[in-house]
Structures are given as C-alpha cells and as structure tokens.
Amino acid sequence: MNEPSTFRTAPIGITMLVVYNTSKAALFAFSETLFSELAGDSIGVTVACPSFFKTNIIENLSQDKRYTNDFAVELGRAVLENAKMSADDIAREVVRGVNKKELYVFPQPSAKKLWRTKRFFPMMVLNFSARLVKSGKFESFLMRQARKGKL
After folding, report:
1. Which sign, positive or negative, has the C-alpha torsion 55, 60, 65, 66?
2. What is the percent of the chain where pLDDT is above 90?
C-alpha cells in the first residue's frame, strides 16, 4: 500500500508545489507499474488517496516556521477544522480498499470527484488553476474551499 500524501497533489497537480507534486506523481507511476507487474503473483498494490482529515498535524507544523508560512498555517487550520473524516475513518476505508485489492482508494467522495475531473478534463483543471494564480486569487480560492470543507 502506498500513500502519496493526498489526492491534492499528484492526481490533480495543485499549483505552487512543483517538487512536492513531482514526488507524488512518481509514487503514482511506481504503484501503477507494480500493480501490473505483480498481478500475476496475486500481490495487490493500493494507492491510498485521502484528502484532509482531522489530525493535530497543524499544531506541530505551525511551531516550526522553517517549513511553512502564515498562509499555510491558516489554510491548514481551516482545512482541518472543516474536515469531515477522522484518521480512524480514513484507515477503515483504506483497509477496505486493500482487502478488495483496489488500486486507488479515495476515502472522501470529494477526493474521488476531483481526481476524476482532472483525469477526464485535465486542461480544464490546469487552465483554471493557472488563471487563479495569474490573477492573484489562488490563495483566497483555496481558503474559501477549505472553509466549506471541500479540500
């Protein structure tokens, strides 16, 4: 089972995180290749793709400013305060997917919807993101989505 952090990066390519997104995309490619190569040996490979879920990670992150900035901490708080699932909820969904030998497990329906949108309409998603960055509205858009519990 591989967990490329979240659906927000490799599957959809969130702007402003190029190195992070690249590492997550590599994990997707690695997992997909292993899935095919190991299928004949009855070995399953699952990529867990959770969105944000309730944890105390932001408390630890916000204490060390070397790895974040004020906006990231504020966004993290908004996302986690509005998350609809706990770590236990995510774990149950991932275990269910592993047991069913699913390649991808998206515990939150919103994560699966966003992944599918990017998969079927990649240029629409990328152009939308590019327009937000170019207009200077990317951060405010993310914050609105976080406060609505959509990230």
Report:
1. negative
2. 41
Domains and CATH numbers, the chain: 18-147 (3.40.50.720)
Nearest to 47 by CA among 2, 10, 9: 2
- Cβ-contact 82, 142 below 8 angstroms: no
Torsion of CA 22, 102, 123, 146, to 10 degrees: -80
How far apart CA 112 and CA 114 sit, in angstroms, is 5
Q: What is the pLDDT of residues 65-83, one digit of tens each?
A: 665 677 877 888 898 888 8
| Spatial distance between the Cα atoms of 145 and 139, rounded to a whole number of angstroms | 10
Residue type, 12: I
| Tokens of residue 48, six digits | 């867990």
DSSP string computed for 87-141: HHHHHHHHHHHHHTT-SEE-SSHHHHHHHHHHHH-HHHHHHHHHHHHHHT-HHHH
Question: Of residues 56 and 47, which shows the higher confidence score?
Answer: 47
What pLDDT is stored for residue 7 in this prediction?
44
